[in-house]
Write a structure and sequence with these properties.
The protein is mainly β. 0% of the residues lie in helices and 79% in strands. The protein has a 4-stranded antiparallel β-sheet with strand order 1-2-3-4, with no helix packed on it. A hairpin with a 2-residue loop joins strand 2 and strand 3.
Amino acid sequence: MSARISTLDLNDGPVRGGKMAVLVGGLNWHWNKHTKWMLNLGVADPRTVTESGYVLIGQARFQVRY
């Protein structure tokens, strides 16, 4: 299992790019020493001066190492 919280601030002086917070949880399944399957699910909260909302994130990855 894994978890991550991250933030991003794109506001700098006159540039108002907004802010974002991201919360991600993940599962890792090691089939053997050469293969791994990963699943991450998360939610992001991007906010600008005029808009806000939520973004759902899903990612699956299969890794082979030889």
